[in-house]
Amino acid sequence: HLAQHIKELTDQGHPVVIDAYSPRSRDRMVKVLDERGIGLRFADNWRDAIDGGAAPAAVVLGLSRGFVLDGVAALITEQDILGERVVRRHKVKVQPENLIASVAELSEGDLVVHAEHGIARYAGLKAIDVGGAAHDCLMLTYLGGDKLFIPVENLEVVTRYGAESASVQLDKLGGAAWQARKAKMKARIKDMADRLMRVAAERMLSDAPRFQPPPGAYEEFCARFPFDETEDQLRAITETLEDMAGGRPTDRLVCGDVGFGKTEVALRAAFACALEGHQVAVVVPTTLLCRQHFRTFQARFQGFPVKIAQMSRLVSAKDQREVKAGLAAGQIDIVIGTHALLAKDVAFRDLGLLVIDEEQHFGVAHKEKLKSLKGAVHVLVLSATPIPRTLQMAMTGLREMSLIATPPVDRLAVRTFVLPYDPVVIREAVHRELHRGGQVFYVCPRVADLDTVAAQAAELAPEARIAVAHGRMRPAELEDVFQAFADRAYDILVSTNIIESGLDLPSVNTIIIHRADRFGLSQLYQLRGRVGRSKVRAYAYLTLPVRRKLTPTAEKRLQVMQTLDTLGAGFTLASHDLDIRGAGNLLGEEQSGQIREVGVELYQRMLEEAVAEARGTAGEHAGKADWSPQISLGTEVLIPETFVPELGVRLELYRRISRLTTSEEVEAIAEELADRFGVLPLSVENLLDVVKLKAACRAAGVARVDAGPRGATVQFHNDDFADPAGLVAWIGDQQGRAKLRPDHRMVYSGDWDTPRQKYSAVRHVLRELAAIAAGQRLPAA
Predict the structure, then answer these.
(1) What are φ and ψ of residue 248, in 5° steps?
(2) b/e per residue, 265-281, with b = 16+ CB within 10 A?
(3) Which is deepest, 48, 177, 234, 629, by most CB within 10 Å?
(4) pLDDT by residue (tens digit) across 534-567?
């Protein structure tokens, strides 16, 4: 039809111009239309398009509707051809700097871990006098009341312990128990990393089919996606397709917030696999999500030679037998199913891709069954809130991960309220939603509560049409209720958490969760994600029993839910879950494990180092986080309250600054601070200078530098230097300015009138020592 329409316009004397939203979509349009026999030429602007010749032109103008200007041109837009499309004009690349919940969230009394001294209690940020100048330090208290002050530039040696526990014993400052415990844990982690690497190596050495989607058909399939891909989403798609084309079995986790477009990644991977003649299995946790995915896949694959089937409780026994026969014979290309797909009598003729959606809902037994399906199969795991073990494996590089953290266009964060049950508040919430033409989810933790809650809802909103849904209903009845609710025959759906996974109903924008203290953290997050999936502001009410004390864990979960009210917080929530529950044994069946001995962050760091060592890719700084150079120049080193008033922001800035390793990074954060807060005070410039010296200290193996107006004292790490002969030769060249004391400390004499001269002299000495340590002999001064 389009080709005929273009021909008619051309015959009428109208030059035809095809307008795309972006250069990428223009390339896609040119390929798709070229396969349909319509050749387009590229134009840079409107003038080029209408003056460049008789052939139809493709240009990027981004208009929504076409028009005909008599005697000038006929414009046909991408939206005219493909239907309505939502455009994101500003794309933001989001890369979380610190995946574990950060030190900024510390409050006084929390447990922390010092890499050298063990578990302590954080007692606040204190400015103490060092060499006659104020210096911000973290104060830690140990067993027996001993105090340790950590300069803010050395904050990287302090990590959060994780979940609070009454049974945790503080360490004795200077005691040997911590080092023994850490050494034992390091040995266990090394053994585990070696075994994990063997498992990963077996997968890397095995062959898997290479899938590359046919270009023209793939462009047409992508054009059916009614949104402009976010940058994160496009990166996840590209990484997944590159994995599948590599000839090795893919094992990728796509972690994206609820409603951020993970399903589109699975759709394009399934397209690449199915059009190469291999089968795709999509495993989902609930019947309702299975039904939704089945309809989505059918709509997207319409017109392609791909047969799609579903297997769940909603499918009759006769149809299930036909699906099983079709899978075994290779007649079905894509199957979407619940746990029914894991039955013993389900066999695939040529399975190429396994997609596991909402992976956190599958138990260990199910995952063992899924492993047996794998072999040389590509595996794609989708989750908004991955379980701690999966997240841990992704963060240590044992499983590839793509993070989708950019929200869709015009998406608004869900307003969250945690409150004791109040009928007045709930009535107002329901009436507000119904008044604006929306619908309401009312979720209960138990089937036994449904009738009571439905009666309460009927009393609060007598005019509302109320439906009830739960997993014990007959499949046909459940299907009818949910379809009727989706068709807006009901206003309120009272249900169990059967609605939790992946359901997409843009008209539902208020959710009330009864007895929210009985749900897990990821459950609450997923339930909240069922609303706010359009451009309308959504509301979530987490109600609690009146006058009943919550357990500490439930209180912490609800506190996290209220705190994480921003878009894209699912990954942060998963790291909180990792923090609260522990990472677990990555090889066994335990979901929470021996992380308590050293705390969540230090455990993470030790595991990363062990994996890098097992891979043979350990960097030159691996393991050096156990010590941090101490630098005292007698200058004021702090971020003043007058410059950054909020304590949490100051702590986070200290954390970031302490982890900088290059001059470029220091200059970048200096620009950021100036941009955010104004002209840098001298004390902040001093802090950044000290951080620059830290990198030189590490390179030179220097543990401590104390500088005054007449010289500096240098103490080497473990009282050892990498090249003693080179050091002695260099000291001999210094014409008496440097000497080595019997306690192995080096003294360098000078006469420095200003702090800037002192800093420059110390930097010069450290650079020369670093050069000697690296084996570079320097000429005499």
Answers:
(1) -120, 150
(2) bbbbbbbbbbbbebbbb
(3) 629
(4) 778 899 999 998 887 877 777 777 777 766 655 4
